[in-house]
């Protein structure tokens, strides 16, 4: 049972795009609105992209990048507070946190895709000749 759980967690960390699609399809089946289903998938899989990106960069560079990820999260939160303050002139924590969570998903989704491309390119360069 523990090995099955380890395999499921490893699969979730390795393929967060597929997990996002699965969560979207399940929420789309349960909900009516496509936008709400997409936002639900974004909310539930953001942490997977963060962990997956940190693990991929650790594999590529053999340096622990988790602290840099935390620093990036803090900078994203500070910029989210600043943007919401400029837009609404009043800081509501729920709005700021929702905006922060979505911008975190966007940032780490792009970082995940770029790290996969970088990993493939490094693998090709390293083992091509």
UniProtKB/TrEMBL annotation:
Pfam families: DUF3397 (PF11877). This is DUF3397 domain-containing protein. InterPro entries: DUF3397. The lineage of its organism: Bacteria, Bacillati, Bacillota, Bacilli, Bacillales. It comes from the Bacteria. The keyword RNA-binding does not apply. Keywords: Membrane, Transmembrane, Transmembrane helix. The keyword Signal does not apply. It comes from Gracilibacillus halotolerans. The chain crosses the membrane at residues 6-26, 38-59, 65-85, 105-125.
């Amino acid at each position: 049972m523990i090995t099955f759980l380890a395999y499921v967690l490893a699969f979730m960390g390795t393929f967060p795009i597929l997990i996002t699609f699965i969560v979207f399809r399940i929420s789309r089946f349960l909900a009516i609105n496509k936008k709400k289903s997409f936002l639900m998938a974004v909310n539930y899989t953001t942490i997977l992209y963060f962990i997956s990106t940190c693990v991929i960069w650790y594999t590529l560079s053999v340096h622990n990048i988790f602290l840099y990820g935390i620093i990036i999260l803090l900078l994203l939160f500070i910029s989210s507070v600043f943007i919401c303050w400029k837009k609404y002139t009043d800081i509501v924590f729920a709005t700021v946190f929702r905006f922060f969570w979505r911008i975190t998903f966007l940032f780490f989704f792009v970082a995940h895709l770029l790290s996969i491309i970088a990993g493939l390119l490094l693998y090709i360069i390293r083992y091509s000749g």
